[in-house]
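User: For a teaching handout, I'd like to show students what a predicted protein-ligand complex looks like in token form. I'll give you the sequence and the SMILES for zinc ion. Please answer with just the structure.
Assistant: Understood, here is the input followed by the structure.
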Amino acid sequence: MPELPEVEALSAFLSERLTGRVIARVQPVAISALKTYDPPVTALEGRTVGPVTRHGKFLDIEVGGLHLVVHLARAGWLRWKDGLPAEPPRPSPRNPLALRVRLEGEAGDGFDLTEAGTKKGLAVYVVKDPAEVPGVARLGPDPLDPGFTFDDFAALMRGDRRRLKGVLRDQGVLAGVGNAYSDEVLHAARMSPYKLAAGLTEEETARLYEALRSTLRDAVERSRGLAAGELKAEKKLGLRVHGRTGRPCPVCGDTVREVSFADSSLQYCPTCQTGGKPLADRRLSRLLK
Ligand SMILES: [Zn+2]
């Protein structure tokens, strides 16, 4: 799933290509991806694209007073196309295409929103104000916002009795951090994902705040200027523990371990994060019985 750094890079990529252009056609293919119907997606046609921005993991394309807001979810992606076929796309179960946006002009360029797999999570909204999107309205502060201070972060952690892994990826607490970067931030801060937020000392809170900002900043820096098609590979290259179960930790060489849940998993380094002790994995202990 694209998280803050990838969506940030995607918004910069689109800004260069879309701002000032006029939308010729909007062609929905997977109706399930459309979460609003008034105004209809066709209301975007004939309007000029303004700024492209980001709210957490939501992409926000301003189009002549309206907003096309997109949440890519787990398997959604945006593909830029230089020459889109003139004929309308046909829905089919094998076709990952959910929505096509075609710009005015000879070239027939534009973009496709696609979604692979069966778990449909891609969400597209057309609204007058991005705050009308429930997921956007409930977002916590953006960790890379220059105004987001250590005191703001400390206040968020202080009252939260949950484990850090859950707190960091809660969009209502912090906007834009998901499963991958919460693993990376905890590894950089040398903290167990099971540590309770409210139990952090002042020194630990400072270490986590620094790790959060530097991990995201570095990832944004690496993705800057990359085309939409190159972002996924770049994200993977930059990860130290997430998705690297069984491979060596780049910091200490210990083996990266995993804890599995019903619909996700986390990765961590025992030496760097948990005093060398593996975390309990209910699925694994069941298998060993
Ligand atoms: Zn390590």
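For the handout, you might add this sentence: Residues 249, 251-252, 254, 269, 271-272 surround zinc ion (CB under 6 Å).
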